[in-house]
Amino acid sequence: MTAKDIITIPNPMLRERSQRIGHVDAEIRELAESMIKAAVDWENGREHEFSAALAAVQVAQPYRVIVVRDDFENKANNTFSVYINPEIVKAEGEPEEELEGCLSVTDIYGSVLRYPKVKIKALNLDGQAIRLTAHGFLARVFQHEIDHTNGMVFVDRIDDPKKLFRLGEDGQFTGLPAEEAKIALTRG
Ligand SMILES: [Zn+2]
Known about the structure:
- There is one protein chain.
- This protein has 188 residues and is an alpha+beta fold.
- The protein has one domain (3-95, 114-155): Alpha-Beta Complex (Peptide Deformylase), CATH 3.90.45.
- Helices cover 22% and strands 31% of the residues.
- It contains three helices and nine strands; from the N terminus they run H-E-E-E-E-E-E-E-H-E-E-H.
- The protein is globular.
- The two termini are 25 Å apart.
- The structure holds zinc ion (ZN).
- The site of zinc ion (ZN) has 5 residues, from helix 2.
């Protein structure tokens, strides 16, 4: 898969709940591998951005599979971890608002409230149950991706158009004109 396989809003599939994986087999492992390729390809075409993670629904495969980058600080490290049927077991702390982007929402970023700490359970690629605790940006990424598996895009968590920004070619954010903000906030 390449960046071209990544679907963007308003594609209605992004608002559908993804299916649970009953059995982790070769097909799922191949899907995860393809998702990582698409995420890396997307990043290679975006000068100022990086691919933190991707959910399977974003490549039009409505299954509860997400891939999360192992190192957010180093763009040269293109390794990702795969989480199947990921769920938030517990969210802790006072939600914090930070700018968030999405491979399925081209050039638009928005301030979204997320918990600073989440406990996650999932299956790994061997089908084994795993649990982990994520803090800060990683916690945000898990909340964003698990939202995708539930048919929710980050803009669905934003009501105020002033919390939306456009990423310019120069890598700077500017406020979004009202008309564009309205389109970005349009559900489904
Ligand atoms: Zn996203």
